[in-house]
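Quarterly update, task 2.4: glutathione-bound model.
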Amino acid sequence: MQSQRVVWGRRSAFNVQKVLWLLDELALAYQHRDAGGEFGGLDEPAFLALNPHGRVPVLQDGAVVVWESHAILRYLAAQYGDADLWGPSPAQRSLADRWMDWSQTTLQPAFMALFAAFYRTPAEHHDARRIAEAVAECERHFELLAGWRPLYPGGRDRRHRLAPLF
Ligand SMILES: N[C@@H](CCC(=O)N[C@@H](CS)C(=O)NCC(=O)O)C(=O)O
């Protein structure tokens, strides 16, 4: 019998990758449906009925539909994770929550600025000053991240692994 759990979204999308990663981490069976990018389909009524924003990832878990990658991660951790992934207290959960929110609201915009300035701009149009500023901003964030990692030596505490970088 096919799994009633379905993940929508092209594998090349980082927001989809984190969901696929957690499903594997939790050893949960699922069907995968390519959508978005070269696969399209995000503006089809059937997809918009799942996610009115027309974005991937989307998780269908039986009758439950969840969109927004971090909402999906939290749902999976709460529904299927052990205490390492979904701590028993709000304070413990906030350890992962703060980094997840930070990654989306602070680190990701900084990285996307660099991505646009360097990778998405043809070399002949590179603006060295803009790129240097974007690199400096990313480095500033990554230094904070590096400073935090030793709190979880060797990655033994899995809570931090709910906090993907992007
Ligand atoms: N904040 C949303 C962002 C969703 C998003 O923008 N997803 C991108 C892929 S990373 C998307 O759907 N792009 C359109 C496409 O792939 O065609 C989340 O974390 O799920």
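Highlight for this quarter: The chain is about 50% helix and 10% strand.
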